[in-house]
Amino acid sequence: MLTIRNISSLVIDNLCDEPCEEDIAITMFYYDFRDQQVQTPTNIIGAILKQLVVRGEVLEHVRKAFQKAKREVGGRGLRLPDMIQMLKQALAKLPRVFICIDALDECIPKHLLELLGSLKDILQELPRTRIYLTGRPQVGGEIKRHFTNCVAIPISPKTQDVRRYLEKKLEMDPQRVAMSDSLRRDIMRIIPERISEM
Amino acid sequence: MSCTSYRNWIGNGNVDCNNVINSHNNSITVNIADENPELMRWLSPLDPRGRHQDVRTDRADGVGNWLLKTKEFREWRSNEGGEDKGVLFCYGNPGVGKTYLR
Questions:
Q1: Cβ proximity of B52 and A28 under 8 Å
Q2: How far is CA A82 from CA A69, A79, A174, B3, in A?
Q3: Phi and psi at residue A118, in whole multiples of 5°?
Q4: Which residues of A touch B72 (CB under 8 A)?
Q5: ipTM value
Q6: Nearest-5° Cα angle at B97, B101 to B55
Q7: A190 part of contact set with chain B, CB < 8 Å
Q8: Cβ of A132 and B32 within 8 Å?
Q9: pLDDT digits (tens, 9 = 90+) for B70-100
Q10: pLDDT tens track for B10-41
């Protein structure tokens, strides 16, 4: 399928692959409505931090916090403000970090507000952080409210995208016998036209 | 550390992070995730890298390349837009063209 999720993976791969002058680190999270209960803001900020812990300079302070928590009441869990604080410490140690979060509309509204509030807080303190977000147009209002200067780009499939997608699908088709040159030509002509009309 | 090491990390769907560690800091040759499973669980039960691998495998080459060429994306990526332009929001319906493409 041709989805925004695919676009997110493209953006993440581009951040990772394209040479850059600076030392950058890329973190990501893909929301999934099937896992709403586990996808709390605390767990998501934690998952972002987890991806930065592989950097030696970040590991040390996180490890200290962990050991401290372990001594207290046999391993206390973290609260959102603690997690945000730890992530801020990590971000402050790294030159530039990208935080990519896909499909914000798949998280429950209460969590969405908490997460956006946390990201806003982080960005205010560490303005070099780059944040990439995706979602249905409906979440745009909340995003704009939290980040007044955010740059919004509408995503709709371009005819070229549809063509590329179809080419891949036809190439992978397990029932090639049913395919003829004229059918292939029709598919490649009609479907992209219809979709770009949508 | 260069971007290359992250490419290794994501590129092969390696959840172990060995590549990253070895490439940027020779003094830490241990595998952080394996060495600290308790710490990693304490931070979060979620592990998003596996999903990234699934999504990118599903992506057809070249799809969405137009976005990477837009001025908005370039500026956001390179920080040229300034520090107040820290957030890029891409919106749309999740399965565009869903009716036709499955």
A1: yes
A2: 11, 5, 52, 29
A3: -65, -45
A4: 151, 153
A5: 0.84
A6: 70
A7: no
A8: no
A9: 999 999 998 776 667 899 999 988 765 444 3
A10: 333 333 333 333 333 333 434 677 778 889 99
Place of tokens 């680190």: A25
3-state secondary structure of A37: coil
Q: Which of B9, B65, B13, B70 is nearest to A55 (CA)?
A: B9
Residue B85 to residue A147: CA distance in whole angstroms: 9
Nearest to B7 among A16, A83, A167 (CB): A16
A81, A121 contact by CB (below 8 A): no
Query: Does any CB of chain A come closer than 8 Å to the CB of residue B86?
Result: yes
Nearest CA in chain B to A144: B89
- Would you call B98 exposed, middle or buried from its count of C-beta atoms within 10 A (0-12, 13-18, 19+)? middle
Closest-CA residue of B relative to A24 is B3
How confident is the model at residue A25, as a pLDDT? 93
- A172 → chain B, closest CA residue: B60
Dihedral angle over CA of B61, A99, A3, A42, nearest 10: 140
For residue A53, the model assigns a pLDDT of 92
